[in-house]
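> example.struct
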């Protein structure tokens, strides 16, 4: 199979940290050190919208939130200020701000969305955290995970699996992957790979 460049998407002025392709593959979210989130049309390569959030610091995590069958209507991003912001698509096809949640004392390192139970997972400061999306589009804590042993490492990814019944968390320096059952919250297993974990994909 041969691959060739189709588009070069240019807008960020500093390093791009995170990317998220929508479920139907039509839209791309990018976030970077320039405090920008850019929404791209992957069919045409055109920029649809730019969201500039200098108060948030650099953009460190991003995920689509599929709250309906249509998808591509809502997303959340985390930043170096420790907050998670939620944006929703309006009738004019642009995304508008819905809420900010003070989630962590440090940089939000990873985000994942569970469409089955409408839950958001975040990771920062060596621990995961679970949130539910409320009617007013804000985030509310659903499980206090303070009893989970804090890891002195950077979380690289969080992923829901088992139809949202379990959560996987991987850490950069230790090369460890933890699997937790969510209800009730408990550690199911921990595995260690040889070397550092740069990324993990389900």
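> example.seq
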């Amino acid at each position: 199979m041969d691959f060739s460049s189709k588009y070069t998407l240019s807008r960020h002025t500093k390093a791009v940290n995170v990317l998220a392709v929508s479920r139907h593959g039509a839209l791309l979210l990018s976030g970077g050190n320039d405090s920008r989130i850019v929404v791209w049309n992957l069919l045409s390569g055109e920029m649809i919208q730019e969201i500039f959030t200098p108060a948030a610091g650099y953009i460190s995590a991003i995920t689509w939130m599929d709250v309906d069958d249509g998808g591509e209507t809502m997303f959340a991003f985390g930043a170096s200020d420790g907050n998670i912001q939620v944006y929703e698509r309006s009738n004019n096809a642009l995304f508008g701000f819905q809420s900010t949640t003070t989630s962590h004392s440090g940089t939000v390192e990873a985000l994942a969305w569970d469409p089955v139970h409408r839950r958001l997972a975040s990771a920062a400061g060596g621990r995961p955290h679970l949130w539910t999306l409320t009617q007013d589009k804000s985030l509310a804590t659903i499980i206090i995970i303070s009893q989970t042993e804090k890891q002195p490492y950077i979380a690289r990814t969080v992923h829901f699996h088992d139809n949202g019944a379990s959560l996987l968390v991987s850490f950069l320096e230790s090369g460890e992957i933890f699997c937790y059952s969510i209800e009730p919250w408990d550690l199911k297993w921990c595995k260690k790979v040889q070397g550092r974990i740069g990324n993990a994909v389900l």
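> remarks
The radius of gyration is 17 Å.
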